[in-house]
Amino acid sequence: MDGTLLRGTATIELARQLGQLEVGEEIERQWGEGSISDNDFWLKLLEICENASEADLKAAFDNAPWMDGIGQTFADIKARGEDVIVISQSPTFFVKGLRLLGAAETHGSTVEIGQPLGNSATLMPMVKVTITGSALAARNLSPADCIVYGDSSSDMELFRTFPNSVAVNATPALASLAATRYVGTDIREAYALGRQLISRTTKQQLAQGSANS
């Protein structure tokens, strides 16, 4: 979600809404440098959000700098009888807001305001692969029927596992693994590239079937 659907991070947007932007920026900096652990990061975020109301959380979500066209993209996917599944390392309580925009499922790090923090709260990269695989199995779909989108190191295992991958404003390392790449602010354009990958795969399967018949 962060960097792919959201032009920024959930932590920064929550801190901004709650009047603690500098604190949010500092813990993002420390985490990026590796000077604090994942759990320390979450504990500091929970301190920022300690007194947040539902209205505060909704405002942080609504005012965040989302990519353009999310609602239209999710609606098109749903109209085709397909599902959007959002898997993010951001907190569950923030990620779930995307269900209101049409996501069939949302998965985030197990971080909830007012709840104890577990020892392994962060949704790890391989868990993204596991969740995606389970979603495909539940729908009797193959890896070739799926398009994965991502932007950073936490998506690298996804891109190594699933062939139809779209790097969105991605780091160079992730972009090098992607089947195609998008740079911009409109998710509809990235989505169009993903649909082209599916179309190409279908044509290749039909051609291979014809050659083997």
How would you describe what is shown here?
49% of the residues lie in helices and 10% in strands. The chain has helices spanning 10-17, 21-33, 38-48, 54-62, 70-79, 92-95, 125-138, 156-161, 172-175, 187-212; strands at residues 85-91, 105-109, 148-150, 165-168, 180-182. The chain is globular. Strand 3 (148-150), helix 8 and strand 4 form a beta-alpha-beta unit. It has a domain at 66-212: 3-Layer(aba) Sandwich (Rossmann fold), CATH 3.40.50. Helix 1 packs antiparallel against helix 2 (21-33) and helix 1 crosses helix 4 (54-62). With 213 residues, the protein is mainly α. The model is unreliable at 209-213 (pLDDT under 50). It is built from ten helices and five strands. The N and C termini lie far apart (43 Å). It has a three-stranded parallel beta sheet. A two-stranded parallel ribbon has the order 1-2.
